[in-house]
Structure formats: C-alpha cells, structure tokens
Amino acid sequence: MNFILHIWRQQNAESLGDFVTYQVDNIDGDTSFLEMLDQLNEQLIEKGEDCVVFDYDCREGICGTCSLVINGHPHGEKNATATCQLYMRDYANQNELWIEPWRASSFPVIKDLAVDRDAFDRIIQAGGFISVSTGSAPEANSQLVSKDNADNAFDAATCIGCGACVAVCPNASASLFVAAKINHFHQLPQGRVESKNRAKRMINQMEVEGFGSCSNHRHCEVVCPQEISVSNITLMNSLL
Amino acid sequence: MHNLNPNEPSGPLENRWEKHLFGLALIAPQNRKKYNIIVIGTGLAGASLCATLGEAGYNVKSFCYNDSPRRAHSIAAQGGINASKNYQNDGDSTWRLFYDTIKGGDFRARESNVYRLAQLSCNIIDQAVSQGVPFAREYSGYLANRSFGGTQVSRTFYARGQTGQQLLLGAYSAMSKEISSGRVKHQSRSEMLELIIVKDRARGIVVRDLVSGEISAHIADCVVMCTGGYSNAYYLSTNAKGCNTSATWRAYKKGAYFANPSFTQIHPTCVPPTGDNQSKLTLMSESLRNDGRIWAPKNIKDCNKDPNNINEEDRDYFLERMYPAFANLVPRDIASRALKGICDEGRGVGSKVNNQRLGVYLDFSSVIEKIGLEKVKEKYGNLFDMYKSITGENPYQVPMKIYPAPHYTMGGLWVDYNLMTTINGLFATGEANFSDHGANRLGASALMQGLADGYFIAPQTVANYLARSQFEEIDDNHPEVVASLESVKARIGKLMNAPKPKHSPDYFHQKLGRILWSACGMSREKQALKAAMKDISELESEFWQSIKVTGSESDFNQTLEKAGRVADFIELGYLMCRDAIDREESCGAHARLEFLAESGDAKRDDENYSHVAAWEFQDGTPVLHKEHLHFEFIKPSVRDYK
Ligand SMILES: Cc1cc2nc3c(=O)[nH]c(=O)nc-3n(C[C@H](O)[C@H](O)[C@H](O)COP(=O)(O)OP(=O)(O)OC[C@H]3O[C@@H](n4cnc5c(N)ncnc54)[C@H](O)[C@@H]3O)c2cc1C
Ligand code: SF4
Ligand code: FES
Q1: Atom 4 of ligand 2, residue of closest alpha carbon
Q2: CA angle, B595 as apex, B589 and B599 as ends, to 5°?
Q3: CATH code at B342?
Q4: Superfamily covering domain A3-111
Q5: What pLDDT digit, counting tens, does each position of B457-505 carry?
Q6: Structure pTM?
Q7: Are B606 and B617 in contact, with CB atoms under 8 Å apart?
Q8: Do B392 and A29 lie within an 8 Å CB cutoff?
C-alpha cells in the first residue's frame, strides 16, 4: 500500500505549525500505524531531514503515551483502540491521511505531534490518591469489597490518561479523565472517606489548568480507547 | 578477581531481615529534610520509593524519560503479583514462596534476599489494597487468586489482565501525594546520561532535558537507580520502546559491577514476528497457558495448512509429550526452548520470516468445548481482542500463534543485601538490579520485587547509609561535576557528528538485535558467542563511524535519544556474550548447548558455577568478580519438571 501523509510540523510551543506532505510506499498490512511513521522517519534520516516527533512507548495500548488525531479522529476511527494498536490493514482503502497532535490549550504542542500533558499529572497531585502512607495498611482482607464495586472501580481505573477525551471535546474538558479517577476511588471503601474533598480539589485543579467544563456532548466516551463511560461524570457531579 | 561481600546477616533465615533492620542506623524525623536523594526512574520500583521517602520526610528529586511517571514500562505487566498470603489454604507459606523462587531461579540467587522478598510479599498486597488497587475479588468480597506461571499453589493477585497498570497507578498516586506535599520534586521527559562520583561516593547525575536538549547536573547525598531492564538490547522485545540500559551502563562504566548480564528471560507466549519493519513484540499473558494447549504439526508438510484441517493424530502436543507432569505449564525457559526446537526442526507455523516459520499453535478449542465460549470470553476476552487487533485473526475460531520473545532481564547492577551497588551511595532497585530471580524469574514475581524494594527495603537501607555518612558540600563548579557535564556533551557531539554519517540508530539496533538473538538468546554455544563478540566489536566501530542523527542536539530529538541508547546497548551486548561464554554450564534461562542433559534440560555445574558473575569495567575491559552462593537452607537439586 502507498500513502500520502499530511503531517502537522511545528518546531516548538511558540512557533506556528503547518501541514507538510510526505509519501510512504510499500506498506504492508501487518505494519502498525506507528511503524508506518517509523518508516517515514527512516526516509527522513536518509534525506538528512529532522524526523517527525511523535509520542509512544509501550506500543500495546496500555501506557497512554501515543496521541495522534488521524483524519480528524483522536486515536483514529477504530473504536476502543489507542493509536499504537492501529494497523495499516485498517487503512487499506484510504490513501491520504491527515495526522495532527491533540488540540487543546491545556495540552500545548511541544514539537510536531507531541503535546505536554503535565496538566493531568497536576490534577492527580491535587487529590487523585488515597492518603495512606507506606506501612500503615491493614490486612488486605480485613475490609471486604463487593465484587460489583470492585469491578466498577476497575472499569474506571483502566483510564490510561491519554487525553483523547480532551482532544475531542468541543470544550476541551477533562471531565471524563477526572471523573474516572474520582469514581475509581469512590467505589472502594478505602477511597470513599475522602471522596467529596477529592472531587472538589481535582475539579478545582481542572479549572485552574484551563480545561473547559462538560456540556454533555459525550464525544469523549466514543473516542476513549478504554471505553470509560460518561456515567462516571454523572457520579462525579453527584458528589459536589 | 576478588570475592564480593553481600553483607548478609547470619542466623536463622526467618529473623535475618528483622535483625538487620534493628542494626540499621535511623535518622530522626526532624533531620530528614536535610538529606537530598536522587531517584532515577519512576516505574513500580522508583515511584514506590519516592512515595515512601517523601512520606518519611526526605527531599527527593526524581526523573523519568516518559512524559509522566504513570507511563513507565511497569504499566504493561499483565498477569499478576505473587504473595504468600495462603488465602486459598492450599499449603502456601513464606517458605514455599521462597523455595519456589530459589528453585525457579535454578539456584543462582541469594537465599537471604529471596527469603526477605517472600516475607515482604504480603505487606505489598496490604499496601496496594489500601491505595485503592482494584484487585479481582470473589462474590464474597474477598480477594481472588489464581495459579500462575508454573506454581502449584494459587498465590497470584491480579486485576484482570492489567495488574501492572493498577499497581503502578497506585504507586504513582502515592508519589503524586508527595509531589503535592513538596517533598518530591519530579521531572519527566528527562534522561540520565552520567553519574557523578565525588571521593568514591555517588553524589549526583547529569540529565538531558529531552524537550529542550538542555544538559544539567543534579547533586544529592545519594542516588538510587530504578531504571528497569535491558531486554531491548535484542531490539525486538516485549518491553516498551524507550526501555534502555543507559543509566545502568553509565553506572557500570563508573565502577558499579554488572551482575549476570547474560541472564535474560525469553517469554514463550508472544505474538510471532511478521516482518522486517516490526518495532516490538507483544506478550500474550502467560495465564493463557492455564487453558490453552500448545501444539505443532507432526509433519512438515502440514505447516502451511489451515490448522483446523489438521487431524488430531497429526498434531504434536509437544509440551504435554515432553513434560507430562507440568505439561503446558512448565517454566518459561523450558517452554521457550522447546518451542524454538520445534521451529528449528522446520515444524513452525505462520508466515516465513528469513525463510523460517516462527510460531506454534496455542489452541483453545478444547477449553471452549469444555466450559463454553462465554466463560472463555470472561476469562480471556481482552487478551483475545488484543490478539485479534494485532494479527487480524480470531482466536475463538483459529488457534493463536505464539513464539518466544525477550521479556525480562535477571541480570543488572550487582547489589548487596542493602541494595547498594559496589559504588558507595549508589543503590539499584527493581529490574535494574541483578535481582532475586537467579537464572530465571518466575511469573508474577517482578512486580513483587520492585515493590518490596521500593516500599520496604530501600527506604530503610538508604536512610542507614545517609545516617552513617558525612557529606561535603559540592556545587556545579566542582571539578567532577564539570568533568561529567563535559563528557556528556562530548559524547552527544560525537553522536551528532560521525565522520561518515550514513545509517540511522534503528539500523544498528536491528543488527545488534539479530546478533544477540541468535548467539545469546534461548540457546548459546561458545563458538557462536565468540563470533558474536567479534561482530559486535565491528558493529561498534561502524556505529561511531557512520551513525547518522539528523536535527539538532538542542531540541526535542528522538533520533538522538535512540542513538545514545543504541550505543550503550552495543557495549552491553558485548558483555552479555562475554558473560555467557564464561559460564560453562546451563542454568535456568542460560542454556549452553555444550552443557545440556540428554533430555535437553539445563545441566548445572554447582561445583564450579554456584556464583554470581559480577563484571567490573577496568580500563575498557570487563574483569570478572564472583559472589559465591551458599545454600544453607535449601539443598540445590535438579530442576525437574518432568
Ligand atoms: C509485557 C510485560 C508483562 C509483564 N508482566 C508481568 C507480570 O504479570 N508480573 C510480574 O511480576 N512482572 C511482569 N513483568 C515484568 C515487570 O513488569 C517489570 O520487571 C517491572 O515492572 C519493572 O519495574 P521497574 O520499576 O524496575 O522498571 P520500569 O517500570 O521499567 O521503570 C523504569 C523507569 O526508569 C525510567 N528510566 C529508564 N531509563 C532512564 C534513564 N536513562 N533516565 C531517566 N529515567 C530512565 C523510565 O522512565 C521509568 O520511569 C512484565 C514485563 C513485560 C514486558
Ligand atoms: S478517559 Fe479515556 S480518553 Fe480520557 S484520558 Fe482516560 S483513557 Fe484517555
Ligand atoms: S504507546 Fe502506549 S498506549 Fe500507545
């Protein structure tokens, strides 16, 4: 397969960016989307040009590092899939691809396709934890947790912190990310004690970071690679 | 060569850690804020340590190359974490976990350390549950367990297929709490490129800001390395792309001994490689071996047939045939070697890579028949989906294909019982140290070790070191600091300006990977290792002649990052082969073809090789030191899984 790629190139946060067009040929269907970009970068090195910067690490959909908007869709069109798990066989009948970074003022572009998501870390620092110190934990089975609660907590906890929900939201809201963390802890007796306070602090930080608020567009749930449900947001609101 | 002293306590095994703890010096709470500690790497080992040191009141400065601590490679661990809680009342105990780990490691680990690890395993689960780690539970509300990776008890705690993710998010949240308290100062997208030693003590590091390219020095009273393993030396592995040896290799070149570098674990159940452009291999959780049956066609002519059309009598369930007692659940090294053997015989399946079919079937049809599709979906749904998205094939209908891939490195920086390297004030924890897993790690025990090190061991031993030391004031103008900064800049200059720039970092990395995979992978042999050392030396000179890095060094430059890591992997690759040659026995994952039993199993030579091989960098050449292993409590036996 051959592809025409329109890739967003931007030197740094201060500079203006633009699309640059490249071509990659002879791409095998079993090649992953990121491996296709690797091949482009190999070409660029050969030509003596600066490579396209894009974020990745695990390449198996779990670390949340990868982050591309492909043809207008964060993580591409495929449901429940992070960018690194896309394969070129999924693009067999598209030969032109537009590749951009996450777009949100709280996620400034650092270079090309990579953005700064430190705001998410600061939201967690504001309250996304249970205040237990090492050594003071009681015996693990001394507090029972119903299977339903444990499963719900797990479902919310699988958020990989990728930021696609922000990238797709017309308000650039981080509500899905924040709500998932709040609900994860709220489902568990260990975490419930601090629920209200935690929610207040995390939501406050979300506003400080400049993320918008939720007005129920629900696009976030659709692009989320972990299928985090918007029902988490309802729960979060009920805690306020 | 001299014998290394592990500083182990003596006496009854059960009391050693407690006795040792009592002997450690303490620092009073109000004095702790006067001490500065650098932690490099914030995966499970590093994040848990940062959290604990912060809570205790020390000043911690941490770094990671990822864009957030939450993204460390630990996040990818699927299967679970062991603890000898004996919740299932199936005869588990601290002693049994200790015994299994020593035996699984083929008697190449230190008894005192492994016993301590088993003792601390239960506290880890308590800690994680309190942090909100959503482990699997029974309907009763109690924690669930499963049996994992070749053990006969159910001691593995898990969170569906995402145990590493949940444990890391727990440690990351605990660390985040300390960042907000101001006691931990963290810098992401930062790579450690040099260790600063002043008067024989580790006193700081040189870091490159991966976004701006800025090089800076950071000074502290001691340094802890939690930088993970080096499976990526093989290029294709199950590790995250950024995993590297650079931090540990810098330490080695500054005098820390590197132990058992050739002990690398090749995991049997990974999605097979398909072509030359592949960038990584994906692990399919070992738990699949609990229900899947592994087979290959008996006849070569069937290898490209649709597996569903191969008759039952033409299938060779080779693990069941070779190892009737443990069958599909034999330890990783044994399964991997058997699998490779089948493919080398020409009985592999799947598409050809370099003229060989690399794969065997992992078949779920009998379990689907037995417990039904829905139950199988519930158990393995996410793994099956993952397999489907990678390969485009539906494992509910067609058997999966699997092939071994480098996965974990038992080797690493040599540490004593205090987790201190041979450099004063330089500690190593988690996969970065040579660890408690001997020559082979059992499933679900790396997470346990990283967290035992980070939550419970290093915080105490680091404090002891600080309490017993005097530190002179140093600043950025100290000659050692200046020299370290200069050497980093010079090296980057060399990477950017090779005399005849021609090839990308990946070009060299792939070449190195192929050399190591064939000579220092699942089976090793003296002549091949020797040839590999020669090839690696040549590759090294070619690298420095023709490495081509485009872009600028004072910018976000992933090509430069890769080049620096590959340069270190090349040097490490040489040492891996050197170590493999030196160990003229087979043990655990280290299979020397000249030293295998007739059955193909590893044949240890306890008389001559019951030691840890610790390599010192001396004027450019590795010099061997030995730590002799004493088995006072468990008599080394033949690891028999027949
Ligand atoms: C796919 C997979 C599945 C696994 N499943 C299991 C399992 O089920 N159970 C189990 O027990 N084990 C499992 N393991 C093994 C286990 O996950 C790892 O051994 C363990 O998580 C390592 O933790 P760590 O904290 O030592 O290192 P890592 O998690 O690798 O963290 C390394 C840290 O160091 C940083 N770093 C590295 N180099 C530098 C540098 N030069 N400068 C600055 N920072 C640096 C990184 O940014 C990162 O923060 C699995 C491994 C893999 C690959
Ligand atoms: S909620 Fe979903 S889309 Fe948002 S950060 Fe988490 S995983 Fe990504
Ligand atoms: S690279 Fe880790 S989720 Fe995509």
Answers
A1: A165
A2: 80
A3: 3.90.700.10
A4: Beta-grasp domain (3.10.20.30)
A5: 999 999 999 999 999 999 999 999 999 999 999 999 999 999 999 999 9
A6: 0.97
A7: no
A8: yes
